[in-house]
Amino acid sequence: MVILTGETLTMEEVRRVVCEDEPVSLAGSSREKIITSRKTVETMLAEKQTMYGINTGFGKFSDVVIEDDDLEELQLNLIHSHACGVGEPFSEKISRAMLLLRANALIQGYSGVRIELVEQFLHFLNEKVHPVIPQQGSLGASGDLAPLSHLALSLLGEGEVFYNGKRTITEAALQDAGLTSLTLKAKEGLALINGTQAMTAVGVITYLEMEKLLRQSEQVAAMTLEGLHGIIDAFDDDLHRVRGHQEQMDVAARFRHMLQDSLLTTRQGEQRVQDAYSLRCIPQVLGASWQTFNYAKDKLETEINAVTDNPLIFSEKNNVISGGNFHGQPIAFAMDFLKLGIAETANIAERRIERLVNPQLNDLPPFLSPNPGLESGAMIMQYSAASLVSENKTLAHPASVDSIPSSANQEDHVSMGTIAARHALMMLQNTRNVVAIELICAMQAVEFRSVDKMAAATREFYKNARSIVPSITKDRVFSTDIEKLANWLKDCRESKINHEGSVLHE
């Protein structure tokens, strides 16, 4: 059970709720904050104070005062009019993450919502009712208005949800789950949709998957080193210590540990003086990718406990402040930066694939083919990897440098953070396929060298991967192999790296 306070949610707790369907509950202290905040809103309404989005219109309509009898309709109209998302829906994991993160923001007692609204979020999470939320349509400032409006629709019993593995109308799912729909009161519609939870949810899923893939890319690269008789001296501690980047030193340490008993790696001067950069510079490149990951991790960990709607209610001062905490620039920058690390993980992996299949760069069978000429072997797998890397380069263009004014120029600078996060996740999926292709080629190479001479760590990884995809004994439809291996890389047991740099499997 994860207890939500609004301020203490961790990435590990998010992972358990999103990936393992762990239930959630509300801390008692948060319950009191929510009730106090709501009382403040109701008192100000009774005093006829003018408050943005509570008894006024939205955006450019902020100067239009709304009559008391129309306040509930105002909130419902907001949700209906703003539910303009298009495209394929987010995955259930992302939808579930959005529910969790939005609930965690609302319970801090600055949003002026009723306890019933927060409890509706918890019911959806615990009963696994996941809103169908189109991916496209958010500018990432004024928050993720369109995606969060689709989320809000489901709380009201409208729209569609995923429930029991099926996409269905919300009303039917709520009935099956024993839940009732919600009616919005003053302030609540705006509180639901002003926020960064779409971009942050996508960012969190990307973070969780990238952490695993970065570790796996190191394991695959270590196997490639063995398949190409790579020079282990390039991973020497002294070499990396004098550079000083911790992530680079950590990568080198993990390679030394993984390959410490390998009979396939070489020393400088034995076969060649030095390797190409895609082998020799693995710690420098992947270390830098880890740096982008760590930066994004820091910003995401802050944002999952952030209050990002507008206006905010400060009950202790009896004050309502309109500001811009919904602006997604911090996450937009973080996701754009992360995209660079994802892109380079794929870039260098594709170059290692080329070294594995190109007969002019190694002494292996051309294209790792069992019958070169008659059979093409891994030739076109390298093409696919190159295509994915090129696509990544296009997606890596920073979304955060773009801004298109909206709401009659009232909202004249936006972050495009949700686009950045979506592209980061797309790039991660492309990169996983590239790593899968490298793994297929690396396994063929070490088989040619002798599996018995592999290091114990890489040999274990090899055996596990070989249980998913068999050796290439003749040409076959390799698309199936790539897909199977990519799914295995995504879904296999979580990898952990201990302080000594070894890779462990739980």
From TrEMBL:
Catalytic reaction equation(s): L-histidine = trans-urocanate + NH4(+)
Residues recorded as bearing 2,3-didehydroalanine (Ser) in the entry: S142
PROSITE patterns reported for this sequence: PAL_HISTIDASE
Gene3D superfamilies: Fumarase/aspartase (Central domain) (1.20.200.10), Fumarase/aspartase (N-terminal domain) (1.10.275.10)
Primary location group: cytoplasm
Superkingdom per UniProt: Bacteria
Location(s) in or outside the cell: Cytoplasm
InterPro entries: Aromatic_Lyase (IPR001106), Fumarase/histidase_N (IPR024083), HutH (IPR005921), L-Aspartase-like (IPR008948), Phe/His_NH3-lyase_AS (IPR022313)
Description of post-translational modifications: Contains an active site 4-methylidene-imidazol-5-one (MIO), which is formed autocatalytically by cyclization and dehydration of residues Ala-Ser-Gly.
Pathway: Amino-acid degradation; L-histidine degradation into L-glutamate; N-formimidoyl-L-glutamate from L-histidine: step 1/3
EC number(s) per entry: 4.3.1.3
Entry keywords, A to Z: Cytoplasm, Histidine metabolism, Lyase
Cross-link type 5-imidazolinone (Ala-Gly), residue numbers: A141-G143
Family stated for the protein in its record: Belongs to the PAL/histidase family.
Entry-linked PANTHER family: HISTIDINE AMMONIA-LYASE (PTHR10362)
Protein name (database record): Histidine ammonia-lyase
